[in-house]
């Protein structure tokens, strides 16, 4: 390992396909993603476990009726009988469906906050902290969070996940930004570099899917989360020993300002303190909606029988909508602060970011509803389906990403590489076709509602092609279309779009988990129909969105001007 610190010019004038620094960041990200995807693999299933555990289990029939009567009498002026705090169905399938519905929504909410915090982390890194300090601090918090999650029970789980939310916000957008800094703006190898980096993400996801997903569901939830924390420590150690090779990349923008004091405290210390204050905030948002239904009344709703009931709005939903409005206003303001040459590129970046919200709302069914679909409606052939569901996508990425990267380089040399908008459009089309394969699998199901494993794996192959057309190219797009001074915040915005995609995924997954209430005793076949019909709708919408992007790509290409966004 070199002991000298390279200059930015020396780094960017690398020979061959990839700079050596990319391999270091590749490995650091691989370990961090091992931690993240290990948590993701267990998240919805563990929440469902908590719902059905001693703290939240359905009551026996006699206890159920007494508790139901007591609860409704106490809250008759405020709550309608459909309030979700207590299970009022005696059917075990309905109890299971309710747990899946709750878990899907909670999964989406937590994932949304994880990605939303990336916007804040990008701001801190851009303005004060620098990317390197942000990555290191975020990694420390992620490790602490996963170790706390390993403690059994709802309270430590939600405390740990709140710490992990903050840590991921500092880590994720900033390491991706440093990858972009390894290349000059006009370097055609940039997309290939991000594709390689993306394969590192998925090697981590693959390893965690094969290990943490299995250990967590078959051995011990606690051991699964603890293993994720150990791997985060490995990534941090690697980053510490290789960061010198990054030269000036990722250093604080104005180091002297870190020591400036406000309220007698340096800005450097204020960032640490401020980030810790987010932890109780997120804890309230992720724990209380689950445990005590933190809601408030917003008018009334008219039910089918003509009667009225309070319209109960969950605080976390209002929070997400409010933040969305504020971010849109911020992006509009940003458009007025850029030059004429930068305006068109920024506009295209924002349009594609908005489309990505829809993409991730569909794609992230993989961590939510598809986890339950895999365990309940796929013929497992003896495999652990949590393991399969959380590793097969990553396996396809590892196998295909290098080929896709070389394919883009080949087309670039032939001056035939499609532009970013076309790649986004293709991503949507493949995503939609993959979900249509899930839909088609019901026509090959057994009488007990089990679909073929080969179709499940095949659907993920098609979805992965869509993912590789959009996600790594999206990271590259942000660094190419946005001014350098806005890289961190716009990378954060890209992940914020993922946050709203996760939030949408939770809402969609929650709806998919609910079998028609008119069915008194729903079976596994009813569940299969419910899920696959929903996947058909997702498929049609995704393909439609892809076609729209392909049609408007010439217009957006003009706005991108000289950005050379292939």
Automatic annotation (TrEMBL):
Subcellular location: Cell membrane
Membrane topology of the entry: Multi-pass membrane protein
Any one of the GO BP annotations: peptide transport
Keywords: Cell membrane, Membrane, Peptide transport, Protein transport, Transmembrane, Transmembrane helix, Transport
CDD domains per record: MFS_DtpA_like (cd17346)
Any one Gene Ontology cellular component term annotated for this protein: plasma membrane
TM stretches of this protein: 107-125, 157-175, 196-215, 221-241, 269-290, 312-331, 343-363, 394-412, 424-441, 453-473, 494-515, 535-556
Residues of the signal peptide: none
Superkingdom, natural source: Bacteria
GO function terms (MF aspect): peptide transmembrane transporter activity
NCBIfam families xrefs: yjdL_sub1_fam
Protein name (database record): POT family proton-dependent oligopeptide transporter
Organism: Flavobacterium lindanitolerans
């Amino acid at each position: 390992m070199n002991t000298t610190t390279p200059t930015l010019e020396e780094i960017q004038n690398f020979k061959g396909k990839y700079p050596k620094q990319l391999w270091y960041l590749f490995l650091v990200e691989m370990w961090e993603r091992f931690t993240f995807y290990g948590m993701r693999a267990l998240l919805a299933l563990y929440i469902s476990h908590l719902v059905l555990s001693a703290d939240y289990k359905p009551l026996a029939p006699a206890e159920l009726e007494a508790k139901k009567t007591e609860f409704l009498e106490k809250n008759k002026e405020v709550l309608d009988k459909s309030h979700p705090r207590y299970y009022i169905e005696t059917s075990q399938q309905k109890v299971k469906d309710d747990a899946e519905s709750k878990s899907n929504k909670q999964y989406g909410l937590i994932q949304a906050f994880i990605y939303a915090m990336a916007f804040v982390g990008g701001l801190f890194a851009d303005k004060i902290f620098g990317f390197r300090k942000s990555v290191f601090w975020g990694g420390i918090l992620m490790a602490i969070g996963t170790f706390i999650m390993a403690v059994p029970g709802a309270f430590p789980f939600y405390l740990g996940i709140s710490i992990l939310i903050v840590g991921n916000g500092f880590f994720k957008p900033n390491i991706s930004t440093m990858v972009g800094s390894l290349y000059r703006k006009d370097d055609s190898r940039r997309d290939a570099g991000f594709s390689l980096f993306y394969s590192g993400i998925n090697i981590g996801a693959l390893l965690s899917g094969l290990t943490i997903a299995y250990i967590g569901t078959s051995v011990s939830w606690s051991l699964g989360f603890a293993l994720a924390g150990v791997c985060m420590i490995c990534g941090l150690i690697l980053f510490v020993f290789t960061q010198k090779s990054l030269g000036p990349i990722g250093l604080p923008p104005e180091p002297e300002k870190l020591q400036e004091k406000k309220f007698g405290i340096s800005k450097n210390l204020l960032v640490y303190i401020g980030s810790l204050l987010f932890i109780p905030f997120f804890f309230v948002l992720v724990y209380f909606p689950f445990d005590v239904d933190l809601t408030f009344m917003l008018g009334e709703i008219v039910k089918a029988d003509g009667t009225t009931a309070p319209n109960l709005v969950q605080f976390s939903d209002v929070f997400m909508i409010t933040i969305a409005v504020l971010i849109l206003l911020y992006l509009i303001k940003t458009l007025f602060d850029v030059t004429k040459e930068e305006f068109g590129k920024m506009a295209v970046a924002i349009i594609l970011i908005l489309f990505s919200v829809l993409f991730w709302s569909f794609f992230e069914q993989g961590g939510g509803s598809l986890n339950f679909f895999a365990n309940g409606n796929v013929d497992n052939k003896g495999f652990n389906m949590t393991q399969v569901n959380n590793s097969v996508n990553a396996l396809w990425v590892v196998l295909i990403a290098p080929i896709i990267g070389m394919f883009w380089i080949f087309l670039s040399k032939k001056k035939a590489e499609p532009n970013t908008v076309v790649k986004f459009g293709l991503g949507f089309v493949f995503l939609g076709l993959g979900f249509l394969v899930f839909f088609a699998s019901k026509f090959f199901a057994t009488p007990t509602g089990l679909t073929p494993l080969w179709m499940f794996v095949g659907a993920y192959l098609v979805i992965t092609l869509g993912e590789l057309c959009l996600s790594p190219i999206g990271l590259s797009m942000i660094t190419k279309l946005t001014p350098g001074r806005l890289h961190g915040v716009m990378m954060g915005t890209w992940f914020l779009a993922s946050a709203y995609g996760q939030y949408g995924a939770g809402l969609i997954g929650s709806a998919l988990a609910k079998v028609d209430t008119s069915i008194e005793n729903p079976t596994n076949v009813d569940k299969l129909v419910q899920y696959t019909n929903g996947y058909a709708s997702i498929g049609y919408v995704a393909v439609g969105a892809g076609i729209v992007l392909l049609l408007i790509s010439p217009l957006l290409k003009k706005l991108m001007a000289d950005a050379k966004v292939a």
